[in-house]
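pinging the channel bc i need a second pair of eyes. not urgent but kinda urgent?? the chain im working w is below, pasted from the shared doc
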Amino acid sequence: MTTLLVIAKEPRPGRVKTRLTPPFTPEEAAALAEAALADTLSAVLATPADRRVLVLDGAPGPWLPPGVEVVPQCAGGLDERLAAAFADCTGPTLLIGMDTPQVTAELLTFGADFTDCDAWFGPAEDGGFWALGLAEPDPALLRGVPMSTPTTGALQRDRLTGAGLRVRDLPRLRDVDTAYDAWLVAEQVMVQGQGGRFAAEFDRLAAGVRRSDVEKSVADRSAVEQSVAARSVAEGSVVERSVVGR
């Protein structure tokens, strides 16, 4: 039995995507989160699977499409919540977050095939991970992994290989956490011709705020990333940052 898991927060103003504020209002940030979640669930529904489960912090709303089972997130840190999500599954399981609306059914189908591996790992641009797949779900592989740190992704992948698993990597994707991330992901979706709600919602909301505020947020984040990349090269190392699913 193949299971697809999506771990998410209810897209409620003030509780989700707070790093989008400013330049967006809490209501606008929640609208972007809802659009990202809707696109993610659309890709999940288009992917062959026996179970499609939304592991939700909060309550489902009209944004929830039919065909998706909803289970509540448990209490505790993110590592405990991810571990509990896997504990409820039997057979091959692929978990993703709600922060990568650029994900496609083709990519998820690829990551749900465990023919020649025991685990799939999807690194995120911020140093975390956007996807984790296990042929045999084992909650112990996640418990105790420090979350929301610059090395979360590397530590999680090391946990998999340290357990003797054959790990294959999915493409590196960018989580939508800031206006800069949203800008780049929306552009990527439009260039790829994917359509969907997220790019359209970003375009609509960006037009409704002061364009200079959005561009300043993007420019500031771009400058920070360029500075980090330059320092990383100078030190001869790759700097990784943050985590999946805030």
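so The radius of gyration is 17 Å. and Helices lie at 26-45, 78-87, 105-111, 152-162, 179-192, 197-208, 211-235. — does that match what u expected or am i reading it wrong
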